[in-house]
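Sorry, can you check?
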Amino acid sequence: MTTTYTKRPTSKLSRCASFRIILASIIFILTSVNIFFAPKLLGPAEYPSNFLHDFKGRSLIYSYNDNTIGISGSRNHTFFYADATNSSRLLLQIAQTPRPIPDDVINITMEQQRCRRHGLQYGNRTTRRRIFWGSLLADDSWHAIGSVALETYGIFDLAVFVESNLTQSLYHRDIRFFPGSEAWDVVTKSGMFGPTTKVIVDYYYKKDPNLRGLEREHAQRALIIDRWKQEGMTKDDIGYISDADETFTRDFLRAMQVCLVPEFEFHNHCELPLVRAHSATFEGSFKCLTSKWKRTPSLVIGECIDKIGDDTKHPKPERSWNTIGWMKDGWTRKGNFSFILNTTIPPTIINNNKEINRYNTTKNVLSTQYYPLLNAADFRRLRGHTYRKSGYHFHNFFPSIVALRFKYKTYGHPVRNAQDERMPVENIHSDIEAMVSCLMDRPFSNPKFRVLKDGMDSPNRLEPVVYQYRDYVDARHREIYDEVLLDEAKRNKTRQLDMKVKKPIMIMNDSMWDPNIFEMLLRDGVSGKEAWRLSFLK
């Protein structure tokens, strides 16, 4: 019997299957090269919380001023976290993400507007002044370091950190940023301060028991200027010294690089060359903005910095603390330069923080007199012109209350019993009280300044770059809130063990409520609802 086979005609189903195979292939190709169609880099609220954690090894589309730029160099980028935990890991990933420098190219119209915002004139510069930055480094929080890195990304030519094996109070500490450690990698190799910024960590070892407090601090900062000189700083560059949790605003630093700055151009042979910030203070959380303003950090033009300027023309002043401290008053404006001229000098730039012909280079100028060059201690102490709303202080951004207590016990201006858990953390310092009052929504007892609870949502708010990342800001706020609750719970348990119970104990739902603890919490300013909850001990 012969079997006849007939060819089946092509069906619609097979064509549909072929189409699906082709479509799947296209999708596979696209996903294999990790193309993301995103409107901007890591926007604050548009992406889910796990977006940043999944970022490594992917390409992104970056945009600035609506000019979209494709970048695909992140595939081999390595992220460093060291001892960062929880939300600080998220911040480090944001800070280390490769991206273009948004305001790198000079736009004359924008620079003119920028200069006017800070009360300055634009001098038609076509290149930016270089900025050499320096800071001490120890047990500073990654929250503060990362936030400063975001604010200053791509601005510095050189960043110098100095770490010591002793605190100012002579407590021994292990070197945290030793070469080859991951903490060292975070600041020197991750690119968090910018793709072309050179970052150096120096180390200060000196066991002299007489070198303590501010004297030790000045000795460490002196290494910063030594390193600037070694790395080629010139008289036309800007020297910038701060603490690791302080920063000028990005906009102000860019203004310093291009504007006609009287303290740089018309300082009258270094009579008054220092620029001071007017820094808003955040206590522990970016949502806890206070009404307290600081007059740090500071900038000085290289021409007026010790070891950078011409020391053959400028007199060598008497200094405190074995020549490493600040100038004695007779060598400064505060003392009317009496050791130099033995006379009262008329004001040339500033008198009681009021401007007097700051751009007039002929009025009241003693053109033949040279004034002392400034060392690192002078950056922190001498008077200068203060530019309003020009900086931020990310204060007490420690990862835990335990770390915060250790800082207040062992560093500058130590509090003897700061680590005693029986002591309410807010009683250590008024700055901490401001933080706790903000976090727990409690009254603040200090009449000198207040907590601005609207913080980020105020229409007149300052806008540090970190505000762009609301997921991180919210996570940090929740973490430090939980830390305060934990610290209070531990304190209550300690009190329960120490006190002699004078009132009956109430048992409720297998928990023990102690009225003595309840009353103590109320006296400490804890709200009734919170005191009731915390006074139940398992």
Notes: Residues 1-13, 31-75, 343-367, 500-511 have pLDDT under 50 and may be disordered. The longest strand covers residues 385-395. Residues 334 and 383 are 8 Å apart (CA to CA).
